[in-house]
Sequence to fold (958 residues):
Amino acid sequence: MYELHFAVPMAGAILCTLNSRLDAAMVSVLLEHSQAKILFVDYQLLEIAQEALNLLRERGTELPIIVLLTDSDCSSTIDITSMSYEYEKLVDVGHNDFNIVRPQSEWDPISVNYTSGTTSRPKGVVYSHRGAYLNSLATVLLFQMDLFPVYLWNVPLFHCNGWCLPWGVAAQFGTNICLRKVSPENIFDNIIQHKVTHMAGAPTVLNMIVNSALIYRKPLKHKVVVMTGGSPPPPQILSKMEEIGFSISHLYGLTETYGPGTFCAWRPEWDMLPPQERSKMKSRQGVPHVGLEEIDVKDPATMESVVADGKSVGEVMFRGNTVMSGYYRDLKATKEAFRDGWFHSGDLAVKHCDGYIEVKDRLKDVIVSGGENISSVEVETVLYSHPAVLEAAVVARPDDHWGETPCAFLKLKDGSDANAEEIITFCRERLPHYMAPKTIIFQEMPKTSTGKIQKYILREKAKALGSTSGPIDCEKYCS
Amino acid sequence: MYELHFAVPMAGAILCTLNSRLDAAMVSVLLEHSQAKILFVDYQLLEIAQEALNLLRERGTELPIIVLLTDSDCSSTIDITSMSYEYEKLVDVGHNDFNIVRPQSEWDPISVNYTSGTTSRPKGVVYSHRGAYLNSLATVLLFQMDLFPVYLWNVPLFHCNGWCLPWGVAAQFGTNICLRKVSPENIFDNIIQHKVTHMAGAPTVLNMIVNSALIYRKPLKHKVVVMTGGSPPPPQILSKMEEIGFSISHLYGLTETYGPGTFCAWRPEWDMLPPQERSKMKSRQGVPHVGLEEIDVKDPATMESVVADGKSVGEVMFRGNTVMSGYYRDLKATKEAFRDGWFHSGDLAVKHCDGYIEVKDRLKDVIVSGGENISSVEVETVLYSHPAVLEAAVVARPDDHWGETPCAFLKLKDGSDANAEEIITFCRERLPHYMAPKTIIFQEMPKTSTGKIQKYILREKAKALGSTSGPIDCEKYCS
Fold:
């Protein structure tokens, strides 16, 4: 996939990286929608690909050519000889004096990235050569990536083209370390073995690291810069990562902003703050990077900027070179996203007096209870500070009286113990009463391949529970 | 000047920074050619400016408005009250809700930089907003400038807009340390006082540092990255800078390439080389930075690339976003510079097998002796390795028999002693006979304000000597 990030654009073609966790039905839908001509398939995913092709054949759709990618541990059950094309063989017959097919315009598309599925229907986000180039440079800069970095790929390349870092790492003459499986053991082993200087990961990946068994951890002998993003990181996770020895930075963006759009530029004077305050500062989404023209927090009705008081909530909006060209074959959604000349992120945030923004919630994750807006992120932050909680997600549950009430889904740490009543009391001591969850459900979290919790699944579950019947009715739902 | 690098473009105007060492006659020529509307003048240069305005008045040219810049040590002999405009007062009456006048196109000019005068007639090099933006980012990257750098301004802001670093330092939230006088004492004092992280300077500035009296030097307690460029740095100077403790990098470019165009990206494996080999590697001009599209070494007659063998000489040529838009009001010179679609640098170089280029000489500095090309840079490198030599410049002297012979101008170190015969013997032991200088002249070097030796003055002097009459006739010219 890394090599193809160069080969495909240099052949004048367009990249469309698919999530490796999709099922055959979704793969067939995206192959059809993207009108892909060639499908490069890792041997581990060959079955899904073939199933997807069968579905396309049934629908009478033209089939893409398949090129198989093998690996040293490739199973012998695959009959490679029966495949029309095998990647390494194609590379072998290639030649160095190949003519690069350059884009006619720098605005020509370089890739289509389907959104990851926290929303229901994936949309094809179109990146241009110009935007990808600028976002690569900006990401390298905000990552403080000097020459010859060693980059560990925890963030999948199918997620915003790996935040544009295939190109950024190459621009800095870097080394790429790829993992088949993201696990604390693999991460620590590779950091030590390859002297990794930079890596990235969603807050859930960091959570996995800070809660990993001590036997997997290895002392860090050199500086490892970790960029986190994808969802608001709980301050507790940031401070625990720093205790282990990682140098943590925080960025924020969406597939539509080529991945990183803002970053929490760290001010030297914050070094003096007590650890808790430092982590709070670091959990803010910050300021736009140098590749982006403008970012603002606006009232979507009036398009007025909110007051920079750390309290007034508005929608985060972007414009600039590193905002997508549009949604592929979806003019309606494109127009909707760009109404009034700004890209509407769907994220709610405040602007602080120093200009740094702080995301409070996804627009559709806000819980409206008794006319009050409750930020699910704020409630989750309190839940993460409970010693027994490993993962937390708060969504709205319908309520006949209040409209909605907060419903918390929790996964406890191995060997930890806590009941719903305790958790609710813990929240009430730290939050206004109306913000504390009324329902607590203990379960495994449904997640996207990039480690984001799929709140829409939890929302459906909370909805199915029906109206909150009393102040604490959660015990019966605990598994 | 730093503030004006933001204020002028934000007012929709175009910057034109003039060299502070120009005389009134040249200032009047450039004011007329540039059609400047407002002239910001530092109090130290007020007399020259007023004299230049008198010259314009005599020629019946429209006069620019003068705005005086004062300083804390501003002499009381200047009657500030008589000035129409004073910078600080103008700033005082400014307001924060000023509307930025954005460029209509990103290709609109942001500045005109007159070439520094190693050539006879200055040409006005036009930079675009787009090029300046990209070169700022590229320069920050090749400078390995992390967030919050402290930058010491040895390179004047009137030289390629300070290599685009006014904008680059701001993009990285940096601190700027400005000097009224570049001297070893000032440089070391400021490094210690302000914890300077980055500075730059022509090889002559580095030469001044490595040859400075020990009482001015202070031990460096933190990493100071130094970028050098402007002329090929003798390897000896690079290794001495590293002995003092500076972390040295080498870049190459011209006013026409917004300053930095290539840099000698340092490969980790070169750390193992012996010091002399390291410095030789570091003195190569290297590879293009990420803001530039392409660089090549070509035969200007056929436009064929030279073989990458470290021997075949061609002209360095550039194309890309960070190459000038053209020469202001000089279509003929613009067409000449861009013939065959590439910017012709006028520099001769070889390409090594690893793709790194090495500049051998300015096209017009090559000495042709008995049909052999002699690189003045190669002869100078040998001269710099002589323990008594402080500065060296080699030019062609006419010769009835050989066509031309190498003529060396030398300045010796304080307290050092060497005669011409010794120097020539020293060169003959290290170079083919025909490359060793036949003439040695001891004198002060004529220099541009950016510290470049003005070879055209030396060439005229060598020409005036007439034909070389014998193998060693230099003694009589020694001062």
Remarks:
- Chain A has 15 helices and 22 strands.
- Confidence is low (pLDDT under 50) at residues 470-479 of chain A.
